[in-house]
Design goal:
Length: 259
Amino acid sequence: MRLTHNLHVHSVVSNCAKREMLIPDIAAEAERAGLDTIAVVDHIDLAEEPDREEAVLANRQIVEKLDGPVQVLAGCETTLIAPGVPAASERTRRNLDIVLLALNHYHLANVERPRDETPRAYAEHHLVMMRSAAALPYVHAIAHPFCHTKLRDLDIGQTLSAYDLSEVRETLALLAQAGIRLEINPGHVRVAPQFFGDVARIARQVGLRFTTGTDAHRLEGIGYSVEAASLLDSIGLREDDIALPDSLRPSQENRRCST
């Protein structure tokens, strides 16, 4: 399996990224890593932050000046504050090349948590958030799904075991119908291969496809490790299970075809 894209990379616009994460350098590193497509997706975590949204939108001007073999997408990773309520406005989402929706930012004070903060309650709430995403316009993929590492007191193994796979199937079917991809990070697969193997199996049954990403905050994290492809292969993913979103902005598709 050849991993051709990384749709989860942060630039210096995100405070969590290293100062080396300038978009031209990101593109150069992606070329060195043998990638065809990369997405710069900076954080929008709070609603009604026009300065932050304008800073993220400004990445498109930088991307449009690039002239290299790697397709670079300007996008965002926006927090889902509550079911059906993304932090990024619809205007901003509409004017970006790609939008990732983060459902697991429970460490942020503005994000809704389940009333009963147990592993089962978080599993149920995560699926409610995911199902609500299927109805949102201008969303391309779910960032780090089923990743429960943001809360230190929440046991990851117990939370993953608390998922009802029939509910997971129903949820993934809704995403498939909406044309939304599910991001798969090889690093997360390493932590819970059995669970993500179940997710991969269910996704294939309902026609859901995946994107890949590393959630890179530094240049060395843009390329994939030597074991990344084998990790995805180990949970039953095939190359045709992984693809760029069908609903990428036409301007980006045209740019790719002209290079």
